[in-house]
Write a structure and sequence with these properties.
7-stranded mixed beta sheet; 7 strands; 5 helices; binds flavin mononucleotide; alpha/beta; Rossmann fold
Length: about 160
């Protein structure tokens, strides 16, 4: 049996691209139980269409915070897809990471609210990576994504 994990990552900078790569690499390198194959794909929110998420067994959303809110790219995705997802993706397991210069709390609040409205299941506390860049951020994102892959594999999510 195989399951699909979708990483939706907004990557406007080398650092945010490194975060997405860390998440994807963690999932692609996941060597779980032999009864389940986890297929992972990574898309820009600009490229996500509603069927991409509907076909996924779980989703990770990685966004920046810009001007006190989630990136416009991430917001645009919800603007385009929200109505299709509403009622058709209940209980979708979701994890979130946010790269922010200083803060990230407004983006966390907004994404948590949207996920709640869509009746998605937030399976981990959203990870906020703020302040000066730290290479350890990549490990945090890798661990988040790995946890989702392992949970899917084990049938927890
Ligand atoms: C136009 C603009 C607005 C931003 N607004 C915020 C903000 O409101 N809160 C915040 O914490 N960071 C803000 N940032 C910082 C970005 O979140 C950060 O630069 C981005 O996540 C990329 O991270 P990096 O610099 O490590 O590549 C802003 C950046 C830009 C370019």
């Amino acid at each position: 049996m195989s399951k699909t994990l979708l990483i939706i990552a907004h990557t406007p900078s080398p650092n945010t691209a490194a975060l997405a790569k860390a998440g994807l690499d963690a999932c692609l390198g996941y060597d779980g139980y032999d009864h389940c194959e986890i297929k992972t794909r990574c898309l820009s929110p600009f490229d996500v269409t509603s069927p991409d998420l509907l076909a996924a067994d779980a989703v990770i959303i990685g966004t920046t915070e810009n001007i006190g809110y989630m990136a416009g790219a991430t917001k645009d995705m919800f603007d385009r897809c929200y109505n299709d997802w509403l009622g058709n993706s209940d209980a979708k397991p979701v994890a979130i990471y946010i790269r922010a210069g200083l803060d990230g709390t407004a983006t966390k609040r907004a994404l948590t609210s949207i996920c709640g409205s869509l009746k998605w299941r937030l399976v981990a506390e959203p990870v906020i990576l703020h302040g000066d860049w730290n290479d350890a951020f990549c490990k945090e994102v890798g661990d988040l994504c790995l946890g989702l892959a392992a949970g899917l594999d084990a049938g927890i999510f």
